[in-house]
Amino acid sequence: MPPRAGAGLRTRLRAFAGTSVALALLVAVTAALAAAYPRAVDRYGDAGLRQAIEQARPDRTTVQVQAAPPWTATVRERQALFRGDRLAEAWAEVLATAEAPLTPDRDQSSYGVRTTVPLAVSAPRIPRPAGLPAQMVLAAQQDLASHTRIGAGRLPRATGEVTATTERVEAAVTADTARKLRIRVGSVLHVPDARGGPLAVRITGIVEPRTPEGAYWSTLPVLRTPTLSRLPGSRPTDVYWVGGLLLAPEAGPVLLRTPGRPERYWNVAPDVGSLRAHDLDRLTSAVAALESGPGVQRLRASVDEELEARTKLDETLADHAGLRSGIEPLLLLAAVGTGSLAVIVLVMAGGVAADRRRAELTLLRARGASLTGLAGRLLAETTAVAVPAGALGLTAALLLLPDARTAPAVAAALAVTLVACLVLPLRAVAAHRTVRLHDGGEDLGGARTSRRRTVAEVTVLVIAGGAIAALRRQGSGSTALVAAAPLLTGVVAALLLARLHPLPLRALSRAATRRLRGLVIPLSLAQVARSPGFAVLPLLALLGALTAAAFGGSVLAGVTAARDRAALLDVGADGRVETTTGTLPRDLPDRVRRLPGVRDATEVSVVNDAKPEQSTQPVPLAGVDPDAYARLSHRTALGPFDAADLRQGAAGTAGGAARPLPALASPRVAEEYGTGPSTVLLPDGTSVTVRIVLVRARTPAVTGDDFLVVDRSGLPAARATTLLLTGDTLNGRALRSAADGTGATVRLRAEERARFVDSPLQSGTERLFGVAVAAGAGYAVLALLLTVLRTAPERTALLARLRTMGMNRSQGRRLLILMALPQALLAAAGGVLTGWACIRLLSPGIDLATIALASPSALEGAALRTDPLSLAVPALAVLLLAVGVPAGQAWWAGRRGSVRELRLGDG
């Protein structure tokens, strides 16, 4: 900055106090939004990753390292390996091998020795459900005291040195194990010995786990909670209990005398609180290194050559990475769309400030000010305003969104501040490169576009069109194209509208001059036709904001529609009451129909294991009332059909060979069995003959891909098994109360829809899109305000001159409104059309299934859906503002008088 660039800075800031405050507010808000975006993405990503790991069971997310004792080692050497000091040394090696960002949770990680094969135990009180003895896993897990509360008795202890020949040891069991297996303090369990004599295990305590769902207890859940198990190939009723015995940590060597194939283990539980989504690739690499890479090789060299490591954490991380990869393009789209609008508005604000100070800067240049000195003065002014404002916005974002990376937020706020600082000096330097005494008036009628600009615009059009076409072919996997799509569409529309809008305005002006009488309308159209017209940058801001708002609204609408459709496919209606073990009570349908919120209840008899005679594969067969079911199918849009096509005739035997029942079938069933009569065997030994007359891909009664639907009156003794409910305000509690005791389950479409919103990354993406839509609308309004403010002095001067010629206040107000109306209408209509075209063009290339559905569903893909509110509301706001500001300006000018404007207009 030149030495005297800052001279008189305070005086100049006072002279432009209003402009300075407005710039500071704009920079603060924009910097806050820019800094908040990466922090919000980090927070949602971190929460999503942590939830994914927490929802997976610890036996999947813990890295389990184990090593059996070497077969070549002596008994004394094996005993040494099973003692606490050697285990602790190996544990330190395992912890040191885990690479960042895989940080072990030392409190929930565990190590010790255990049997890998459950051992049958004998004790008089332990239950035997099928006459089979209970089996126990014996474990000497370290640090047992700090993870338990004593419920009865005491923790086990080792008396003297425990060896492979020790005949009696102590153990504890959890409260769940004691309750289910009827074990008390003092019970003695006998475990078979590999050498013949049993090992006596005396129970000294019953303990309560401090964190039963933590990895310490849930990596091997049998130590906490016993389960019923069954031998492979045995009958379903041949079950036996499998539980866990917790030996003293020093009693590990005694497991060598059992036939349970004991092994050492070290379970590394990840510290979920330290995980960060931006480290997902490094975390995946660290897990792979410890499981099967350099980490496990180092452990084999330092601990045991036969050491192995296994985990399902890599699968959990891969699932989350798939979800993130599907959402990232949409997140980037919100950032690029809103960010580009913010930059355009900042540039426009600098342009307005430069225009307002055009006379001052022209005078300074005429008096000998250099471009460097001029730029330095302006840079000092904007820096004094923008830097504190940017710091304030950054501070607000850091305080409102803690626990996220700071560097991206600082970089984003710094970029906003830098643009705000540089735009006014650069605009001023570009406008005042040459010294001149006054500026010539701009006239659209006499202005000609240079060939260079034409070539540049055609080039931009070709690039934007090619990018949109590429996006339609490549889909949402093309991250950069998805992010730039609304902006590219807005660029194309802005260039076309800036070039083409004078044509209808000139035509209207000529028609008004020839045919209309009066002063206001012809004068307004003539003034609009000869005005500078649309500058590309403000028009791009308006169209880009409207397009971004429409695109964001279409994403949110598409997500909502996809979840509604997926929930409908899963339930079949607004509600479903069904039983799979029998039939519904005869009075239940009437009771359900009388409940508040229930519009209609359609009874269906579903037989899931009906078998067509020419096939061994069962096909669900639904018996329905054709009229009621047809109404339901039309209401839900799931395979609608005409009831007359499914209704059986009046003559003949129902479902007999002479008169088969008309049937509605899925495409696969129709292809396999054709349209001829087919016999279907029912579970009760009866049969029915059907003929497929309708084919539909979906039907409300059956949620699968294979089904047959027939007239229920043609089935022998068909009782209702399912109620399909419709109604906008179904009460789940009332429905479950009505179905209580019947063995029926109740499912509601609204509850199923909520199930699809699972990850914070999904819900966070929706919130970010909502903020992006609101910010886009706000920047559109701001761009319009800046455009109006830029031309406000000219309109005020024009109104003052016309007032001296006899125009009254009412005429002046109508004149300014009519001058603003044509361009506002064109901009609003162009924004609506651009948003609609963007959605239509890009919809084939974008699948919203990842953000919409958290779990698998029958829905195949989720497309963008046009949201009328997102199209209309911002456009109407732009139109009202474009008309309201000139009207207010005319009212204010009428109250203030016109002397000042007439003096400023003197040459």
Compact summary:
The protein contains 29 helices and 21 strands. By secondary structure, it is of the alpha+beta class.
What does this structure look like?
It is flat and about 120 Å long. Strands 1, 2, 3, 4, 5, 6, 7, 8, 9, 10, 11 and 12 form a 12-stranded mixed beta sheet that branches. It has a 6-stranded mixed barrel with strand order 14-15-19-16-18-17. The two termini are 35 Å apart. Helices cover 53% and strands 14% of the residues. It contains 29 helices and 21 strands. The longest helix has 45 residues, at 760-804. Helix 2 (17-55) runs antiparallel to helix 25. It is α+β, with helices and mostly antiparallel strands and 907 residues long. Mean pLDDT is 82; it is low at 440-447.
Question: Which features would summarize this protein structure in a list?
Answer:
53% helix, twelve-stranded mixed β-sheet, alpha+beta, 907 residues, six-stranded mixed beta barrel
